């Protein structure tokens, strides 16, 4: 009895020493707290208003029904978006896997077999000498049949398994926010490409009108040459101007093809015509934008919320890594029947059961656990920097687009006045040329300047519309 008591004491002391040693943590673990502060305004001196365009649904923000139809199709067919949806499902399955780890594992087991052992072994001598069934010789080899249930359970005392499950939940939420951010970018990319297509259509229409006007001017110069009012040089310069303008339409046509196919790729379909209404492009009025206050970015931007979920997961990973230094407690149990003959399998004498507990902790050579712990801390610091960088990037994006909307509007107003002035100068130069009071080079230069200014006007309108789309995306709009 004393011997058993002493053995119990020694075992308890050994387990206690093991637990204390396992609980000792390494020092100098690096951690960092995130900074969520942002400036109070995007532009100094502007009035503060919490009305935010980023909360407007994209179907309400975009009024062009052709554009709305394209976005609708893309949200169903875009391959990259569908790949991301599968990533979300993978993250969801990871939650189930982590949740199952801290629940008991229960299973059924059955088996049959036989084994022939040597006669001069302990088991062999037992089989030869032990009379299992009175009056019958033991079968050789002795069969073995078993059926039963078993269970294993790791007690999650330190929260390692539960924290791993919570981290998996955060990564699932991060994948959802990643999908939302992809939707935001997809909506913006389709809208920008659509407006680019409208601009190219208007440039093409402008080129065709100029070809017609320049061709008529060329015919007039030819008539004037016949009447000796101009020489052959003037005819050739006008002809060169017509040919140059004609070549522009093929460059624009190639850009139209590429832009259509870019849209078709985003929509998830093979090349085809993109329905659109290109009339009066320069008369399009950009949607009204309310940028709200910078702190709303933390709530509206999916990429910021994604970085926040990644940071939360990284913090939980530290707890999981820390728990590996503590003792691991496990329980195993089993119950069933085992016999050498199937007819004896369900008899009470064949019943067997077991129950065992174990305690294990790292004692010597914990380098792998330490490395995992320090790695998780470094990843947490990385996640903090990534979170802060995402906030900074979001703020700068909005600030840039706020300035661009204002500047592009002013530029468009001035470009419109320039186009009006050059249109008038075309009429004046033509009249002066017809009355021999202006050189033909003045007419050519005026026509070229007018065409370039109209191209610039269309490009400025495109920049204005793109700025509206981009600030909508930067504010976190488009994913709801």
UniProtKB/TrEMBL annotation:
Source organism, top-level taxon: Bacteria
Record's signal peptide: 1-29
Membrane topology qualifier: Lipid-anchor
Gene3D superfamilies for the chain: Outer membrane efflux proteins (OEP) (1.20.1600.10)
Subcellular location: Cell membrane
Similarity annotation: Belongs to the outer membrane factor (OMF) (TC 1.B.17) family.
Name under which the protein is recorded: TolC family protein
């Amino acid at each position: 009895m004393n011997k058993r008591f002493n053995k119990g004491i020694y075992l308890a002391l050994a387990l206690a020493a093991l637990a204390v040693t396992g609980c000792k943590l390494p020092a100098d673990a690096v951690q960092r707290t995130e900074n969520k502060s942002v400036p109070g305004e995007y532009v100094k001196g502007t009035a503060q208003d919490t009305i935010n365009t980023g909360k407007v649904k994209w179907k309400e923000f975009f009024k062009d029904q052709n554009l709305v139809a394209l976005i609708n199709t893309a949200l169903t067919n875009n391959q990259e978006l569908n790949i991301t949806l599968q990533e979300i499902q993978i993250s969801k399955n990871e939650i189930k896997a982590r949740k199952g780890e801290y629940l008991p594992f229960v299973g059924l087991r059955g088996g049959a077999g036989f084994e022939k052992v040597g006669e001069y072994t302990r088991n062999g001598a037992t089989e030869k000498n032990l009379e299992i069934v009175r009056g019958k010789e033991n079968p050789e080899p002795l069969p073995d049949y078993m059926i039963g249930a078993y269970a294993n359970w790791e007690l999650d005392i330190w929260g390692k398994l539960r924290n791993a499950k919570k981290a998996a939940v955060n990564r699932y939420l991060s994948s959802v926010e990643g999908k939302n951010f992809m939707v935001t970018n997809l909506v913006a990319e389709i809208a920008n490409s659509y407006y680019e297509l409208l601009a190219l259509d208007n440039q093409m229409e402008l080129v065709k009108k100029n070809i017609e006007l320049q061709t008529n001017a060329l015919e007039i110069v030819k008539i004037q040459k016949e009447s000796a009012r101009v020489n052959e040089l003037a005819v050739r310069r006008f002809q060169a101007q017509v040919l140059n303008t004609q070549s522009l339409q093929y460059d624009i046509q190639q850009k139209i093809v590429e832009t259509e196919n870019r849209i078709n790729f985003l929509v998830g379909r093979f090349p085809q015509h993109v329905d659109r209404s290109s009339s009066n492009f320069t008369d399009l009025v950009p949607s009204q934008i309310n940028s709200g206050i910078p702190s709303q970015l933390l709530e509206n931007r999916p990429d910021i919320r994604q970085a926040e979920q990644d940071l939360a997961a990284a913090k939980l990973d530290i707890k999981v890594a820390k728990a590996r230094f503590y003792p691991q407690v496990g329980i195993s149990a089993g119950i069933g029947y085992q016999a050498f003959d199937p007819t004896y399998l369900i008899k009470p004498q064949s019943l067997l059961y077991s129950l065992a507990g174990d305690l294990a902790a790292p004692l010597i050579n914990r380098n792998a656990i330490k490395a995992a712990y320090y790695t998780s801390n470094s990843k947490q610091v990385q996640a903090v920097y990534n979170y802060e960088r995402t906030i900074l990037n979001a703020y700068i994006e909005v600030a840039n687009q706020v300035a661009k909307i204002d500047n592009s509007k002013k530029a468009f107003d001035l470009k419109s006045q320039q186009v009006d002035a050059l249109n008038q100068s075309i009429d004046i130069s033509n009249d002066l040329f017809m009355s021999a009071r202006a050189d033909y080079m003045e007419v050519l230069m005026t026509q070229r300047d007018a065409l370039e200014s109209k191209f610039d006007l269309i490009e400025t309108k495109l920049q204005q519309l793109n700025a509206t789309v981009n600030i909508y995306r930067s504010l976190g709009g488009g994913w709801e």
